[in-house]
Amino acid sequence: MHSGIRRTLMFAVLSAISMATTACSSASKSTSVPRPSASEQQPLTEAQLTGALPDSDELPGFTTEPQSLALLEAKDVVTTYQPSCRPIADMMSVRPKYPRQAMVWATMQPNDAPPGVTPGSVTLTSHAVKDAKAWMVELRQALTKCGQFTARSQRGWTHRFSVRPLSTAKAGDDSVTYLLTNALAPKGRGNVMTVVRTGGTFTTYLMNQDSDVLVPVPASIANQQHKKLRAAAAQP
Asked: How much is the pTM?
């Protein structure tokens, strides 16, 4: 997929564990080695994230296609002068407050989508667990304080966005869903964003708003991906 479509996908908004587990040693001499707790787990590598990307047959009703080009480039530094909105703006930035250690992504299209419709996406990003937890807390707080904001990118654009928190089914270790709409979006339609945390990994689903009905990613799909990431993290 060429860079123009990649830009359209990431900025469709512009056009418009964690349970700690340890091995217990008994009174008798045990040679088992304690497993690291969730807070001690290392961020997943790009290879691990790539292996955890969903296959099309894993997402009933959707077709996915892994992408090899980077979703964000060096020029995609997005900033806002509204501190309460930064956690949301950071989702679009290559240089967020809490660094990403690795990122992979795939297009995600409903099987019944009309021809020519820009697909949505599913993106996996790995972080230090403490950073992922902190970002999620701040993202949730931002959705209570940030109704609209102006963002600027070193790529050269400036856009105004509106934000509306949406109800979300419980998924992963933590999750949020919101509608992000560019003030210039055709027909005032935006993107339904769902962010699911699995330990130190974010799965971010971008679903285009095709009608007045807001349809976030199904909780069954989000939880299935959560399980896949937990399995990837458990591999030695």
From this structure: 0.84
